Amino acid sequence: MNEANEEKRNGILGKIERVGNKLPDPFFIFVILAAAVMVLSMIFSFTGATVDHPGTGETLEIRSLISFEGLAYMLSSMLDNFTGFAPLGLVLGIMLGIGVAEKTGLLSTAIKKSILKAPKSVVTYAIIVVGITGNLASDAAFVIIPPLAAMVFYTIGRHPLAGLSAGFAGTGAGFTANLIIAGTDATLAGITTEAAAMIDDTIVVTPVDNYYFMLTSVLFIAIAGGLITDKIIEPRLGTYKDETEGDRQLEEVTDIETKGLRNAVIAGVVFLAVLAGLVFFPGSTLRNEEGGLVPSPFLGNIVPIVLLFFITIGVVYGRTAGTIEKMDDIPKFMAEAMKDMAGYIVLIFAAAQFIAYFNWSNLGTWLAVNSADFFTSIDMTGLPLILGFSVLAALLNMIIFSGSAQWALMAPVFIPMFMLLDYHPAFIQAAFRIADSSTNIITPLNPYIMLVLAVMKDYDKKSGLGTLISLMLPYSIAFFAIWLVLLTIFFVFGIPFGPGVGVSLEG
């Protein structure tokens, strides 16, 4: 324990942790940035700086926020900036549905059932996949999956810390990949759309715009995570010697929970069948005028559809398993889900003001145009620039753990710049997501690291932060490397990242 504490205090990770701990809460980071935009807008306005809008050709002056006009704008737009911020409605809407599925116990039961029923030969891969898809339960996945994975490994006679590592790696480093559209997709898509509006307010990035890429990612990340666990982590840990007192019992899924899960699956299949019928019905208004799906009202309204899907399966499970005793329990669970989002809502209030000020002052357009011109002048506009951006995002994640907060900082600067270089904002969003996700498990600022560390100590009292980081580092490096290769393949071969979404704005 003393060694671990010494490493934590004096090592590189300790330095990162100290720097990160000195940063203010993300809310105040955005307040400080908004103030910085105010000061810079005044300075640039005083110097007479202008920029030609790349879309309209109009010459725009930098407008000072520290002026009577700026003061009037800030006061009159404050509430509109908040309530009109695209990610807010998207995320809260989708979390109403996912919240019902989580609070009724459906997601927890599905996770336990998936791991417990997996054959021993593939249990590691099952844990990784469950971890990856666990982001449906948002941050609750960090609380549920790693301890459960450790218990599964212990029960079948394998090293519990290897199971814990697999569970934490899948949940943390694989957080952005998924088989199903989740709240993360809605959050980032909304922020990207807001940033893209600085250049073209007709562009809308939807929650499905990275789906093909993230769906493909699940396979490669799961294989890599399983191999790392079985071939590197567990052999390094050696044979586990249980020095704790008492028996560990893995809580089995009850018959009523199993029945609830079965009925929820049936309800989900019926829901999807009805949805497919509505989409492919001749003359369906869910398709576009040409009869296609890209773009279409179906894809454009995917969030309400996902919301209804999760409410449906959550209610069916809850009624069967007894976690919903009366219909009044449904809005109660929704309200509890919204309570969990309180911190996000507060953060968005400050982030929305920063982005709005950046946009209104025309500083965002000025920075985007001049940055694009600079990279063009040094002939750095291709894949190396994209990969460099992804590496930068990975490094920033070491001191800004919240993916939505980090993207709200980066998107207003980089999305307009890359759009001027003819890159689709959803493609740049994907480059950010892989970096942010890969380093989640090695940043000391991840609040769930301490939770995982506590579980580790339950099995090995000598383990510390250094132990955990050393176990996570192979996953982080491998996942990021695989994702960079996958991003390159999609880039080179022009594979769509989502429905109708390519590398460039031109298609």
Describe the overall structure.
By secondary structure, the chain is mostly helical. The protein has one domain. The protein has 22 helices and two strands. It has a two-stranded antiparallel ribbon. α9 crosses α22 and α19 packs antiparallel against α20. The chain is globular. It starts with a helix and ends in a 14-residue tail after the last helix. InterPro entries: AbgT. It comes from Salinicoccus roseus. Keywords: Membrane, Transmembrane, Transmembrane helix.
Annotate the secondary structure layout.
Blueprint (H helix, E strand, L loop, with lengths): L1 H9 L1 H11 L3 H21 L3 E3 L6 E3 L6 H16 L2 H18 L2 H11 L6 H11 L6 H16 L4 H14 L9 H14 L14 H27 L17 H26 L16 H4 L1 H20 L7 H12 L1 H19 L2 H15 L5 H14 L6 H18 L4 H14 L10 H11 L5 H29 L14
Antiparallel strand pairs: 1-2
Helix pairs in contact: 1-2, 3-16, 4-16, 5-10, 5-14, 5-15, 6-7, 6-8, 6-12, 7-9, 7-11, 8-9, 9-11, 9-21, 9-22, 10-19, 11-22, 12-14, 16-19, 17-19, 18-20, 19-20, 20-22
Outline: globular
Residues in helix, %: 55-70%
Find the count of extended strands (DSSP E, 2+ residues): 2
| Unreliable sequence segments | 1-9
Give the N-terminus to C-terminus distance in angstroms.
55 Å
Radius of gyration: 24 Å
Structural class: mainly alpha
* Series of secondary-structure elements, N-terminal to C-terminal: HHHEEHHHHHHHHHHHHHHHHHHH
* Largest beta sheet: strand ordering: 1-2
Arithmetic mean of pLDDT: 85
Protein name: p-aminobenzoyl-glutamate transporter
Organism: Salinicoccus roseus
Keywords: Membrane, Transmembrane, Transmembrane helix
InterPro entries: AbgT (IPR004697)
